[in-house]
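Hi P.,

Sorry for the delay on this. The queue was packed all week, but I finally got your sequence through. Input first:
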Amino acid sequence: MRFTCTRFPDGEVPIRTRAGVVMFRGGVADVDDPDLAKALLEVPASFGVAEDKPVKKAAKKAARGKE
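Then the structure:
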């Protein structure tokens, strides 16, 4: 799963979660561990962390809405 961080869009920044540390590079982090991904979404909103939804899923969702 890919995550973005709007608070730190540049450089390398570690963000600590209850499940471990995630390193963001250029405002992006790829997380393979589901527990770490879930914990990352629990950090304070001021970090601006969000899951980056793949474009394919968004396109499929939009197509379903037009049916």
